[in-house]
Design brief:
The chain is mainly alpha-helical. Helix content is about 80%, strand content about 0%. It has one domain.
């Protein structure tokens, strides 16, 4: 895979994460009397980032082990 297509894929993935966080925020604030504090927003964003990083890390391990013949 070329470097340019890799950066495009990363940019698209980041854009999707930002859109999903924006949608979650708009749905959450549209629920009515519910509110979320600044600490709640930080936890929400950190949870999304950590979950994404874990998924990327595990998939990278799958591909690396497959290429090296461990699977």
């Amino acid at each position: 895979m070329s470097s340019k297509s890799t950066w495009i894929a990363v940019a698209v993935a980041i854009a999707v994460v930002i859109v999903v966080i924006g949608l979650m925020a708009s749905v959450w604030t549209g629920l009515g009397d519910t509110g979320i504090s600044a600490a709640g927003w930080v936890a929400l964003v950190l949870g999304a980032v950590v979950t994404l990083a874990l998924g990327i890390g595990l998939m990278a391990l799958v591909f690396i082990s497959n290429r090296r013949g461990y699977d």
